[in-house]
Amino acid sequence: MKSIKLVTLGGGSSYTPELVEGMILRHQQLPIREWWFVDVEAGAEKQKIVVDLARRMVRKAGLDWKIEETLDRRAALKRADFVTSQFRVGQLQARYIDETIPFSHGLLGQETNGAGGIFKAFRTIEVYKDIVADMKELCPDAWLINFTNPAGMVTEAIINELQWNRVIGLCNIPIGQKKTAAQLLNLPEASIQTNHVGLNHFHFHEVWDQTGQNRTGEVMEALYGESGENREVVKNITNLDFSLPFLQSIGLLPCDYHRYYFLEKEMLADALDQYRQGKVRAQVVQEVEEELFELYRDSNLDHKPKQLEQRGGAYYSDVACQLICAIYNDSKEIMTVSTVNRGVIPYLPEDCVVEVSSVITAQGALPLVCPKTPMVVRGYLQQMKQMELATVGAAMTGDYALALQAFALNPLIPNGELAERVLQELLVAHEAYLPQFKSVIDQIKKKGIGYDRG
C-alpha cells in the first residue's frame, strides 16, 4: 500500500486529539508516513500544545509516524495525499462578533445560521482562495476533507468557484443522528441506515433497518411524542420540542438546526435571554477550550480526554478519519457528506453542492437517490440554496448587492433597514478578514458606522 502524507489545516484546534485518536484506531487501514499540522501565528501556541499531545498519543500507540508542526502552509502541502481543514478565521473573537452584533439588534446570533453563518462563510472562503491555489501547485492529486463551517457553502465555493473537485464536505450531525436512532430502536448501529436529503445544517432524513423496513415514524415518536426522550444531538443548540404533527406531516426527521426555522420565535427568545445574561456560545466555548488546553498541557496525558465531548461537535474528527479511510481503501461505505448534487435533488441545480447520503469511493462521493420531499421541504431547500449561492458569490467578489441579497433570502434575517444595518456593522467589525469588501467597507465607515472592540 502507498504510504500517506496527511496535512491538517488548523492544527491548533481543540478537536485535533480526536482526529489523532481516529487515525491511530485505523492505522492498519491507513499507512500514514508523515502528518503535518499547520496553523497561523495567532494559533501557534495552541498548536504546539496539541502537537506535543499528538506525539505522546502516537508514541503510546507504538507507531513511527513523522509528526511535524509549522506555520508555513506551503511547506506542509508539498506532495500531500490528504488535507483536512478545521480552522476558524478570526478565532473565537470572530464568533463572538457574529453572535453579539445580531443579538444587539434583536436578531439571531449563531455560528452557521442567520447573519453569523453568512459572515463566517465570507471570511472562510476568502482564506480558501489561497489554500486552493497552493494545493493546485503543490499537491494537485490530494483530497481535501473540509469540516470548516459553514461546510456546505465552503464546499460549494471550493468546487464551483475555485474549481477544485477533489473535495468532500463533512459534518458530525448525521453520525449523531444515526447513533441516536440505533439507541432508540435498540439496534446495533451497523444494522440501520439513514438516508439524507438537503443542505449542510439544513437536511432531513429517513431511518431504515437491515430488513428494509422504514423506521422513521418510530424514531420520530420516540424523540418527539408525549413520552419521547427528545435526546440532545448538538450541544450548542437549545433542545426545544419540535411539533410532532408537523414532522409527521412531512414524514422526515429534522436536523437539530431546524429549530431555528420551525421554532423561530421560541428559539430567538431563548437565545436573546442567554445573550442578556452574558452567556453567548462563543464565551461558553472559550471557557471549555481553556479547560481543555489546561489538560492538553499535562505532559503525562497521552490520550484524548473525555472532556473534549463537551466542546460540541463530537465525532467531527472521527468521521473525517472514517471518510479518509473509505476513500483510500475504496470501501464503498455509505456516508452523509456535502458533494455535487448530480441531479439526486431534482429541484436544485445539478452542479450545486448538497448534503446527501453517498457511496464513498476512490473517485469520491457518489450521491444516492434521496427520500421524497413534500412541498414545504422543497420550498425551504430552494430558498436556502439560493441564499447559499448569493453568499458564495458575495464572498468571492466582495459584491455588496449580492451580500444584501443573501441577507434578504435568509429566513432568519428580517428584510428592511435593520438587515442592512446589521450587514454593515458586521462588515466593519470583520474588516481585517474581508479584503474583498475593502471598497465597500471604506464607504460604510465614511457614514460613521463602526464597531467598538472594547
From TrEMBL:
One of its GO terms (biological process) is carbohydrate metabolic process. Gene3D superfamilies: Lactate dehydrogenase/glycoside hydrolase, family 4, C-terminal, NAD(P)-binding Rossmann-like Domain. It comes from the Bacteria. InterPro entries: GlycHydrolase_4_CS, Glyco_hydro_4, Glyco_hydro_4_C, Lactate_DH/Glyco_Ohase_4_C, NAD(P)-bd_dom_sf. This is 6-phospho-beta-glucosidase. PANTHER family: 6-PHOSPHO-BETA-GLUCOSIDASE, 6-PHOSPHO-BETA-GLUCOSIDASE-RELATED. Coiled coil: none annotated. Its cofactor is NAD(+). Residues 197-413 form the Glycosyl hydrolase family 4 C-terminal domain. Substrate binds at R95, N149. Mn(2+) binds at C171, H201. Binds 1 NAD(+) per subunit. Pfam families: Glyco_hydro_4, Glyco_hydro_4C. One of its GO terms (molecular function) is metal ion binding. The record marks E111 as: Increases basicity of active site Tyr.
